[in-house]
Amino acid sequence: MSNSRITMKRIFPLLLTLLLITDKLFAQASEQAVPMADKLREDGKIWVVVAVIAVVFAGIAVNMLRIDSKLRKIEKELNIK
C-alpha cells in the first residue's frame, strides 16, 4: 500500500470530524437573512449557482483521478512501492 493511501486513511476521519464541528458553528449564521441569497432563491437562480459549484468540484475530482492513474502507471514502470 502506498504512503498516499495510508495518509488518506488518517486524514479522512479528521476531515469528517472538522466537517461535523463546523456544521454546528455555522448554525447560528443561518438564522440571519442574506439579501443576495434570498433574491437568488426567489428568482430560482440559486440552482445555477449550485450547478456551477457541482461542475467545478466534479472537474477537480476527475482531474485528481486522472493524475492518480498517471502516477500509478509511472510508479509501476519504475517499480516504486
Automatic annotation (TrEMBL):
Name of the molecule in the record: CcmD family protein
Residues that span the membrane, as ranges: 46-65
One Pfam assignment: CcmD_alt
Leader sequence residues: 1-29
Highest taxon above the source species: Bacteria
UniProtKB keywords: Membrane, Signal, Transmembrane, Transmembrane helix
The keyword Transmembrane appears for this protein: yes
